[in-house]
From TrEMBL:
It comes from Leuconostoc suionicum. The lineage of its organism: Bacteria, Bacillati, Bacillota, Bacilli, Lactobacillales. This is Peptidase M16 inactive domain protein. It comes from the Bacteria. Residues 186-357 form the Peptidase M16 C-terminal domain. One of its GO terms (molecular function) is metal ion binding. Coiled coil: none annotated. PANTHER family: INACTIVE METALLOPROTEASE YMFF-RELATED, METALLOPROTEASE. Gene3D superfamilies: Metalloenzyme, LuxS/M16 peptidase-like. InterPro entries: Metalloenz_LuxS/M16, MPP/UQCRC_Complex, Peptidase_M16_C. Transmembrane segments: none annotated. It holds the Pfam family Peptidase_M16_C.
Length: 421
């Protein structure tokens, strides 16, 4: 993957393709996860989504995207391991299909530059009215998690699982911290993002590479060396004692059982491919033991899944179920894990799971967002695994590999959400 350095401050990857009739631009700012800056960075993403010095209202921003032939502009925040990301994305029709396409391309890059680098601010502070509106919008979004029992339970599980405080907080921060933010403090967080974050740009579409470079070189990118050079992956030492929390809430008609297991393997250990297959066999697909046995055969849960997070090393299991079935479900989940650890699974199911994993992986070819995510991952980790190597690694996973991977998991925390009696 070829990378171009722009203005000594950003990495640019261009992915030329005629596969899609759209052009995609994504700009990603990343830094180390710190609890004191997560909420402010999340609010930056809200503020830069709805206004700039030139487009002072959300209506003006929307009108400009209409003028760009129905462009789609959005911002987002998320976490990968121990890095926090603010991302800006813009999608426009491929200029090659538009009369005056060169002008459209120039205007699109100018618009994105405006939204990122020229916020609606004065005297080193964001506009007070826009700030108040977006601050409340973010608070409302964070508050809505409490009304979604699945999201709430997983969030509470995260709080009791991670040792590092920044890992316990949502990528969008928390209500209390957001409520105490002010326009000047968030503006400083925005400036820190521009000056200190690692900045990665990915552009995908039917484009002239030199033209793209020329357009981005006009952006006011701050020359700098990002402070955070370590890999994003987070790992922590195994705990000797289980962290457990049971909570009761009103207005619930079913319970949530969530558990976090640690899988202590290094981020790029070859065992990660066996872990992918093992997780799919446990609860990651409709062919999994949790789905087939716990949900379908025994009818113990309305929903159940397992998810392995390569970036943190944790495997999460979550189930929505009746209050009276929590203990029985917990016991049966442990039985499914033990069965895999002892090799109690058939090769036919494993082969089907491998085919499903490979099919999902290859489907990335049909998605601009997925192709760009692969490029961002390679920029962030500074590592590449070729498509064929990835497929070969999955295909070569053996039954013994799956058993060994399952034997490495260790229960670290359990959170149970129950209806108020």
């Amino acid at each position: 993957m070829k990378k171009t350095i722009i203005n000594h401050g950003a990495n640019l990857v261009i992915l030329p393709t005629t596969q899609f009739k759209t052009l995609h631009i994504a700009v990603d700012f990343s830094t180390a996860v710190e609890p004191e800056n997560i909420s402010a960075r999340a609010l930056v993403s809200y503020l830069t989504a709805v206004s700039s010095a030139r487009y002072k209202t959300q209506q003006q921003v929307a009108q400009k995207t209409i003028d760009l032939y129905g462009a789609q502009y959005q911002t987002d925040v998320f976490r990968i391991g121990q890095t926090h990301h603010v991302r800006f994305t813009l999608q426009i029709p491929a200029p090659t299909y538009i009369v005056g396409g060169k002008q459209l391309l120039t205007e699109a890059f100018d618009f994105l530059s405006e939204m990122i680098f020229n916020p609606l601010a004065e005297n080193h502070a964001f506009d007070e009215q826009v700030f108040a509106n977006e601050q409340q919008s973010l608070i409302n979004e964070l508050a809505s998690v409490k009304d979604d029992k699945s999201r709430y339970a997983v969030a509470k599980l995260r709080e009791i699982t991670y040792d590092k405080s920044g890992m316990r907080v949502s990528a969008s921060g928390n209500e209390e911290t957001v409520a105490h933010l002010n326009p000047s403090g968030v503006y400083q967080a925005y400036q820190n993002m521009l000056n200190d974050d690692a900045m990665n740009i990915v552009v995908l579409g039917d484009i002239n590479q030199q033209q793209i470079i020329s357009l981005i070189e006009k952006w006011p990118i701050v020359p700098h060396q990002a402070k955070e050079e370590r890999e994003p992956f987070y790992r922590q030492a195994s705990r000797l004692h289980l962290s457990e929390l049971v909570e009761h809430k009103t207005s619930l008609n079913q319970a949530m059982l969530t558990m976090a297991y640690q899988l202590n393997i290094k981020p790029f250990d070859d065992q990660r491919f066996a872990v992918m297959v093992m997780n799919s066999l446990l609860g990651g697909t409709p062919l999994s033991k949790l789905f087939m046995n716990v949900r379908e055969k025994e009818s113990l849960a309305y929903s159940i899944y397992s998810r392995w997070q390569h970036d943190t090393g944790f495997l999460t299991i979550a189930a929505g179920l009746d209050t009276t079935k929590v203990h029985q479900t917990d016991t049966m989940i442990q039985e499914q894990i033990k069965a895999i650890q002892e090799g109690d699974f058939d090769n036919q199911t494993v082969d089907a799971i491998k085919m499903s994993l490979i099919s999902d992986y290859l489907s990335q070819r049909d998605s601009p967002a997925s192709q760009m995510e692969v490029a961002f991952s390679r920029l962030l980790t500074r590592r590449e695994t070729s498509e064929q190597e990835w497929i070969n690694r999955i295909q070569s996973v053996t039954a013994d590999d799956i058993q060994n991977a399952a034997q490495k998991i260790s229960l670290q925390s359990r959170y149970i959400l129950l209806p108020e009696v």
